[in-house]
Design goal:
The chain is α+β, with helices and mostly antiparallel strands and 370 residues long. It has 9 helices and 19 strands. The chain is elongated and about 85 Å long.
């Protein structure tokens, strides 16, 4: 087990350049909308994002996620009368046919098959109602407090709703599943000899779009959850009840990529030295436990602050915690990372008076690298 070395003193390094405000976000015509950074879940744009609304077939994001977590891709599913011929968008399943879970997932997310949703639900949970319980349990697990599912396909129903904010969080989580991400980024697929095309036009029309799901009913209007990534910066955008959703998503992404980036502000290879007390060497070397990443405006400069002990009693071992490093901007703390011992520092057999004095009187030394 790693041991904690108390941090007893503060040291600061470097000054920050003043940050400038990002350009204003574009206007959108949605009933509700949000754009978040996928990794940090930080919202960059919100419009009535907490309002409960109908979500149509974007429901299938949760359907696919629960099916993936409950089923193997190669499992065989026999289609019965409960799913064959389901109204609304369809992949045209027929009773008695057999599909794999993976094939049904392509039909679910590309063709938006309501029949595929029912077939997956029955296969995964034994019944549509049982599967809906799993969907709502997953929503609770993810902290989606304003989301309630009544079916796995998204047709309008009492007690079936979510918010732009909850759907963005759900999509960010789902996109961390490699199989889910592969399926929703696919423009077309052949299933049982039939080609099915993805309804998400942004995959071909917006550079960097990698998902996620469209939806429509007369009551819900057009709903769209999308994801776009460039140079390691990933955003999720959601619009509900939006007649011009393709253009609104493109405009919000253009604004986000122009003004923000996910940047490394703390380098895990940077080394700091702290005087040792009773060690074989006069100093103990510390480094950040990992790189520190932060979502910043492109004009932001980070200021680094260190929280270090004035000395470290030896022996200590590689990975032992010993303070913390912070990255600050004009907007506040961007991220923080623990500092750990870079290597073992054994105790001296007989520490001398000079070593002890160095331990008590020395000041931390900042190095730019090993």
């Amino acid at each position: 087990m790693k041991r904690l070395i108390p941090a007893l003193a503060l040291a600061a390094a470097s000054l920050a350049m003043p940050a400038f405000a990002a350009a204003p976000a574009p206007d959108v015509g949605a009933g509700a909308a949000i754009l978040i950074h996928a990794e940090t879940r930080e919202p960059l744009f919100e419009l009535r994002a907490g309002e409960r609304m109908l979500i149509a077939s974007t429901t299938k994001i949760m359907t696919a996620l629960v099916a993936l977590e409950r089923c193997g891709l190669s499992e065989s599913v026999e289609i019965d009368s409960r799913s064959a011929g389901k109204e609304g968008s369809s992949m045209y399943l027929r009773e008695g046919e057999e599909y794999t879970v993976e094939e049904l997932l392509y039909g679910l997310m590309l063709a938006s098959g309501n029949d595929a949703a029912i077939a997956l639900a029955i296969h995964a949970a034994g019944s549509e109602a049982g599967f809906v319980r799993l969907m709502n349990e997953k929503a609770a697990e993810l902290g989606l407090e304003d989301t309630s599912f009544a079916n796995p396909h998204g047709l309008d129903a009492e007690g079936h709703y979510s918010t732009a904010r909850d759907m963005a969080v759900l999509a960010a989580y789902a996109m961390e599943n490699d199989v889910f991400a592969r399926i929703v980024s696919t423009r077309s697929a052949v299933v049982h000899g039939a080609e099915i095309s993805n309804h998400n036009r942004l995959l071909s029309e917006y550079p960097g779009c990698i998902g996620v799901k469209t939806g429509y009913t007369m009551a819900a209007g057009r709903t769209l959850v999308s994801c776009a990534e460039r140079d390691g910066t990933r955003f999720i955008c959601v619009t509900l009840s939006d007649r011009d959703d393709w253009a609104d998503h493109a405009a919000l992404y253009d604004w986000a990529f122009e003004n923000f980036e996910y940047r490394r502000v703390i380098d895990s290879q940077t080394v700091f030295r702290v005087p040792s007390a009773g060690g074989e060497e006069p100093y103990v070397e510390l480094r950040p436990a990992r790189d520190g990443m932060a979502l910043l405006r492109r004009t932001d400069e980070a200021e680094l602050k260190l929280e270090l002990p004035p000395f470290v009693f030896c022996p200590v071992y590689e990975g032992d915690a010993a303070g913390r490093i912070y990255a600050l901007t004009a907007r506040g703390e961007a991220c923080s990372v623990p500092l750990v011992c870079a290597r073992d520092a054994p105790a001296a057999e007989k520490p001398g008076l000079l070593e002890r004095l160095l331990g008590f009187l020395g000041r931390p030394i900042y190095l730019t690298g090993e």
